[in-house]
Design a protein that fits this description.
α3 packs antiparallel against α4. Strands 1, 2, 3, 4, 5, 6 and 17 form a 7-stranded mixed sheet that branches. A 5-stranded parallel sheet has the order 8-15-9-10-11. The protein is built from 13 helices and 22 strands. It has 3 domains: 224 residues, 3-Layer(bba) Sandwich (FAD/NAD(P)-binding domain), CATH 3.50.50; 110 residues, FAD/NAD(P)-binding domain (3-Layer(bba) Sandwich); 105 residues, 2-Layer Sandwich (Enolase-like, domain 1), CATH 3.30.390.30. It is of the alpha/beta class. The N and C termini lie far apart (75 Å). The protein is globular and about 70 Å long.
Length: 480
């Protein structure tokens, strides 16, 4: 194996492996370094956090538990009699691992098909574009790349009041591996990860309490959407405690004793398992030499410009280690952009059009500005909403919770924000992303023909409602 490459990527997560494949497709000699090793310690595992212990396994569990909940509670009203439905947790976990194995193995196949050299070991950026790789036995080898892309991802944040013990107090990875349904489950953090993981086990029968330090529920989400979502989650049995600061967690007699402070003073709670999901931090530990020329802030984020260039010539950084939302698809888009820029092209990521999704039930998804952001900026805007309760396809699917909300500039009618809570929101939000990417107005969507009956008709109606022209709900009276 030659030690010289056009591009060396450190990290094979959704940012890194996509960057490596795209670079190879541009005719660049490319290597990708990944340290993740299988549990038996024998082989390299590609795909990073997302495919192995994040996006994919969590969605596998969410899908199974959603179907279980439907069979247990909703089928009878639809005329389907399915008595004494049970969940086999071991089988559910086995299926999850099968999906992960298939996808991670698929990346190895894609590397081979595209001519990417896969290097197993811990990569460390040195000065002058050199990358030192340490294998599992401690042996080191140095490679040189004309360009290096850092894509080392992120790891869960551990908080002093609740240190992980791997059994009773766990991070998001541990929460995906429970072998039985905990009777009482505590979740620290009411963000995307906390709500998704809490939902998984709540559907299977856990009594779930979500403890959140913020006073607002989902503060980054449009608050009309957030309030609707919170109402649905609480109806499902999630106990969401806001404005609560964790002060301690102690394991005694096989249970976790938690203490926290809220507006009513000191509180106590007992759980069988405690998931800590307060966010993630860049995983740059031991990945960047001090003399590499790459600059980081005190939290470990690497400084980059709008095209993901670091301050060191020929060194780029993408995904969770740089500014912006920690999202797999954002990392992938940055990976494509960087690979094409190295090849001499000039693409740019449109950071205003990156969708966000919470895969609960109902799902929550959005792109662009919230109403609160626009108010704070003093922008004039119009809003159109449409509830799934008035959508025929949603009624047929027994999934009428939630709404679509479209926000458009009052002067130009250009869509500024697209928000959804409800069935298939993760898929429907793509319609908003495409519209905004093409600079669409609300009228453009209103003049578009949508198939009937579909959930997407709610997008059509929300667009019509922006100008007070919705057909299937009463419109707000226009101010005179």
């Amino acid at each position: 194996m030659s030690d010289k490459f056009d591009v060396i990527v450190i990290g094979a997560g959704p940012g890194g492996y996509v960057a490596a494949i795209k670079a190879a497709q541009q005719g660049l000699k490319t290597a990708c370094v990944e340290s993740w090793t299988s549990k038996d310690g024998k082989s390299q595992v590609l795909g990073g956090t997302c495919l192995n212990v994040g996006c994919i396994p969590s969605k596998a569990l969410l899908e199974v538990t959603h179907k279980f909940e439907e069979a247990s509670h909703d089928y009878e009203s639809m005329g389907i009699l399915a008595k004494d439905v049970e969940i086999n947790v071991a089988k559910m976990q086995e299926r999850k691992l099968g999906i992960v194995k298939q996808l991670t193995g698929g990346i190895a196949g894609l590397f081979k098909a595209n001519g990417v050299t896969s290097i197993h070991g811990h990569g460390k950026l040195l000065a002058n574009h050199k990358v030192e790789v340490t294998d599992k036995d401690g042996n080191t080898k140095t490679y040189e790349g004309d360009n290096v892309i850092i894509a080392t991802g992120s790891k869960p944040i551990e908080i002093p009041p609740a240190p992980f013990d791997g059994e009773h107090i766990v991070d998001s990875e541990g929460a995906l591996e429970f072998e039985e349904v905990p009777k009482r489950l505590g979740v620290i953090g009411a963000g995307v990860i906390g709500l998704e993981l809490g939902s998984v086990w709540a559907r299977l029968g856990s009594e779930v309490t979500v403890i959140e330090a913020q006073d607002k529920f989902l503060p980054v989400v449009d608050q009309q959407i957030a309030k609707d979502a919170k109402k649905q989650f609480e109806k499902q049995g999630l106990n969401i405690v806001l404005g609560a600061r964790m002060t301690g967690a102690e394991v005694k007699k096989n249970q976790v004793n938690v203490t926290y402070e809220d507006a009513n003073g000191k509180q106590e709670a007992q759980f069988d398992k405690l998931i800590v999901a307060v966010g993630r931090r860049p995983f740059t530990d031991g990945a960047i030499a001090e003399d590499s020329g790459v600059k980081m802030d005190e939290r470990g984020f690497i400084f980059v410009d709008d095209t993901c260039k670091t301050e060191a010539p020929g060194v780029w950084a993408i995904g969770d280690v740089v500014r912006g939302p920690m999202l797999a698809h954002k990392a992938s888009e940055e990976g494509v952009m960087v690979a094409e820029r190295i090849a001499g092209h000039k693409p740019q990521v449109n950071y205003d059009c990156i969708p966000n999704v919470i895969y609960t039930s109902p799902e929550v998804a959005w792109v662009g500005k919230t109403e609160e952001e626009l108010k704070a900026e003093g922008e004039e805007y119009n809003v159109g909403t449409f509830p799934f309760a008035a959508n025929g396809r949603a009624m047929a699917a027994n999934a009428t919770a939630g709404m679509i909300k479209i926000i458009a500039d009052a002067k130009t009618d250009r869509i500024l924000g697209f928000h959804a809570v409800g069935p298939q929101a993760s898929e429907i939000v793509a319609q908003g992303v495409i519209a905004m990417e093409f600079g669409s107005s609300a009228e453009d969507l209103a003049l578009t023909c949508f198939a009937h009956p579909t959930l997407s008709e709610s997008v059509h109606e929300a667009a019509l409602a922006v100008s007070g022209g919705a057909i299937h709900i009463a419109n707000r009276r226009k101010k005179k």
